[in-house]
Amino acid sequence: MRTLPGKLNRIERVILAGIAGAVLASCTVGPDFRRPDAPSATRYTETSVPQETVSSPGMAGEAQHLVSGADIPAQWWALYRSEPLERLIREAIADSPNLAAAQATLRQAKENLIADTGALLYPRVDANLSATREKLSAAELFGGTGGQTNIFNLYNASVNVSYLLDIFGGSRRELEGMQALVDYQNYQLEGSYLALTSNIVTTAVREAQLRAQISATRDIIAAEEKQLDLTQRQYQLGAVARLGVLALKTELEQTRATLPPLERELASTRHQLAVLAGRLPSEAALPVFELETFTLPQELPVTLPSELVRQRPDIRASEALLHQASAEIGVATANLYPKITLSGDFGTSTNQFRNIFAGPSVWSIGAALLQPLFHGGELEAKRRASIAAFDAANAQYRQTVLQAFQNVADALRALETDARALSAQAEAELAARQTLDLTQRQFQLGGASYVALLIAQRQYQQAKLALALAQATRFADTAALFQALGGGWWNREATASVAK
Q1: Helices (H) and strands (E) in the chain, counts
Q2: Residue spans of alpha helices (H) in 237-258
Q3: Positions in the chain short of pLDDT 50
Q4: What is the chain's mean pLDDT, rounded?
Q5: Is the pTM of this model over 0.85?
Q6: Three-class SS of residue 145?
Q7: CA-CA distance, 117 to 178, in Å (whole number)?
Q8: I need a surface site. Which of 3, 162, 238, 271 has the fewest CB within 10 A?
Q9: What are the distances in angstroms from CA 64 to CA 209, 420, 475?
């Protein structure tokens, strides 16, 4: 169709007027996403948690203070004051395959958003250049039986422009949903970062605990070997019965039998630590972690309940999925309404390539309207399905929030109860050691039976191993609290932006 400016016919004027009115009246259908309100709770536990834990003598027995409303440092593991731990975490962040995969997935989501933004919001322009060579005879051109044969070169150049008017906001809702998926992948990355650092801390503490238990077991074995040697000499002198020697030897072998499982678990823990650091177990030059290499953090920031939903990566990721589901309702709603597409072509045609852009021009402009009339209930069902998907995402979000609050409540209670448990265990270990020392002296003088000595040895062994476990548990409880509160990733982003 070709019409001179100012000479538009009636149909064209109606089309253009309709398009202009539609553009001016354009809107975005579907619900506008509203971030869910934070829970109104003022505390995490049913009853108040003491703001200071109990203290006990010895390693990891210091009191810890809970500071309500304080911010969590980005590198919270630095509060343990363990340079080997900090170095290992830095290396793990650089080499972790899980982090690399999460980063690549985030980049993919961003690039997909850029691609769809260009496809949905901007006109599509395509250029076409073609050349053909044809052989036609005079007979074919003018009829007849003879004549001259003509060879023609024909060159065409054209530009096509098409644009889908986003009158009802379907494209904008689709891009809104894709942006929500980018946010989701970003929070998934933050969650991977938090999981990696938390697992390294707890695994390193686990290694330190096992080393303490192995050391305690070896000390007990050495003491029992010494006691057995003394008892054998007494037996040779006739001071004790052979039954006493056999009983002590049995106790010694039972204690030795507990050592290999601890060593196996230590090796497995080291292997796990190597994998977390992005290394092969056979090639990992990992630092050795002992309980003495950690310092128990004294001040523990505790996020206000109203702020937790803004800090946990898993909650923010679930919120992003909820946002995406909300946008999908808008997309499904927009599909119920008409779609208008504008298109235009401009081109030239000539038989000489050098004059291709100087040849006669050919152009056209048009508009197309697509109005769904009958799809067997498909479009309405898809909209109802998107609403159901939103309801499911909303329920999953609420469940994620509930689990987050449970994690924090569990961590706070663990800090309190495990501090008391360590204090009691330290007292039990001290009493068991004093009992063993007294029983050993009485046994050597004949004032205690070998049965009493065996009982004292077993009690001391159990108390010493339990003490190492209780000390390590306090370090792990602190890491669990930082993880439950979100790990301070927002401060890491702020630090990075300032550095830039």
Answers
A1: 12, 6
A2: 242-257
A3: 1-8, 10-12, 14-25, 141, 495-500
A4: 84
A5: no
A6: coil
A7: 9
A8: 238
A9: 20, 12, 11
